[in-house]
Structure formats: structure tokens, C-alpha cells
Sequence to fold (248 residues):
Amino acid sequence: MRIALISDIHGNCFALDTALADLRSHSVAQIVCLGDAIQGGPQPAETVQRLRELGCPIVMGNADAWLLAEENDSAEPTSQQQRDVRAWTLSKLSSDDLAFIRSFQPTVEVALAGGQRLLCFHGSPTSYDDILLPDTSREDWQRFLGPFAPAIMTGGHTHTQQMRRVGEGLFFNPGSIGLVYDVLLPKDQIYTSPWAEYAILTHEQGRLSLDFHRAPYDVEQLIQVIQASGRPHADAMIADYRRDPKNA
Fold:
């Protein structure tokens, strides 16, 4: 069985379409989305429509939940810019779109051969706010994921492609579709990379393999989408794509 994992689209349907076009060259049985699908980017309604067309299971992410909550109901500190974008995003979504977002699940489980399972979540199996990074302590990895081993586990949230053994289990993050950056950089040095990230898990006859993918796109075409969208603070978003990584 081959399963594609996508995550952290953040309202960037242009990048999602790039990843889906790339996926067509790979034979997968299922796609699962790990959350943070709608909020942040220039195409929230278009992203909802594309996910409806896919009909794939979708995990609830913290940014998805924030759209459905009160403005100040967020575990992460939010800036005025983020609040402005949230208000604009909500103005672009219909009541049916919001009902679709409410249908996202806390976790999604996929049965694999031989009694194995794939457990899908956003931050951790118990909270979409939990953060798992390569430099997270062994103790925290065990606390967040140890009770769920030997499952194969996958989550998003940190926009960081990574893989880690957890006891007899395995965790991986497929990276971000719509907002790729190095979360370990200082905030004033972060830039956005012009590609969509995803992963394909293959589980056949007891054998397991994992492939990480990057699908590049024309950043100038995306910038035209951002400029035409009416999204607040579009110039700041565009600047993150045009920042020279060598000088970030």
C-alpha cells in the first residue's frame, strides 16, 4: 500500500496543485492531509474546493481550529498581521466551507497489512499544538509519541521534513505544501522556499519505505496569485519569497 501524506497547505492552492501534479507520476492508494490546510495563504476558498474534490481524510490543525474559534483563542501568540489575514480568510469562506473545516478530525488512522497502522495527526496524537523537531529532547519525543508505538506515526505543524525512530515505531513529517521554510533559523532570517513538500509511505509484505518529495514551482506565478488575491500584507508575504537565502 502506498499512501501520500500532505500537510500545512495554508491556503496556497497553487502549491497544492503543483504537488498533486507531481503525485500523478506516482501510484498511490490514498492521500491523507495532516492539517493547517486553509489559513494564511492567498487562496483559502480555492483550497477548500480542491480538498473537497480530493475527498481525502483531513486532520484538524491548530490554524484550522483558530479559524473556527474566537480571534484570541490560540495557544500560539498571534500578531496583528496574522489576525488581519485570518479576518480576510473568513470573509472568503462560505458557511459550507466552514462546515467542511469543522469536519476535520483530531486524528486519522489507516490500517496497514500485518496488523500495523498509520496514525496521522497534526502536532501529536493528543494535541495539534505540540511541537516535534529534530532538536526536541528524547524525553519529549517519548512523552508525546512513546505510548503510541509501535505504530507508524506522521504529523505536520513544524513545516520540517524529518524521520525519527520511536521505540519499535516510526515518526515522520512530510513537510509543508504551501509554506516551506527552515523553522530552526532565527525569525529575522526566515525565507520561503519555492517548492511544495510531501511524502509517500510504502508498506508492502512487511517492508517499509519512505520517500520525501519536493515539487518546485514558478515563484513569480505564485507572486501574481498573491498580488491579485487581495490578501492583507501581501507585500510582506512576497518579500519572504524574494529574500536571498544567502543574505537572510
Summary: The helical segments are 13-23, 44-54, 62-68, 80-92, 95-102, 138-145, 219-229, 234-242. The chain has a mean pLDDT of 95. The radius of gyration is 17 Å.
